[in-house]
């Protein structure tokens, strides 16, 4: 599992970690029962504080993405694929709503916005 931290991001480091681990679970690069690096080892690898990685793992556990067994480590929890899909859909809906709201500030039409989405979609294939 590779996690990349951006110091120039507005997103807090613990959120960057949780987002990337969630994305690895969504994309099935991490599967149920897979062990995550220890909090200490991940902190060393990323050159960040242990408290930051601990916070990320606590958030992931609270949201049901991982289970932590005291003294043994943290593991990917069993996931309801439909629930995961719904969570991801909600994130996409929120971002699209934000894009629509932002487009209104520059009088970008819905057709122009759709065209932009088509162009971006083609560029990510």
Automatic annotation (TrEMBL):
Residues 11-79 form the HTH gntR-type domain. Keywords: DNA-binding, Transcription, Transcription regulation. InterPro entries: Tscrpt_reg_HTH_GntR. Pfam families: GntR (PF00392). It comes from the Bacteria. The keyword Nuclease does not apply. PANTHER family: GNTR-FAMILY TRANSCRIPTIONAL REGULATOR (PTHR38445:SF7), HTH-TYPE TRANSCRIPTIONAL REPRESSOR YTRA (PTHR38445). This is GntR family transcriptional regulator. The lineage of its organism: Bacteria, Bacillati, Bacillota, Clostridia, Eubacteriales.
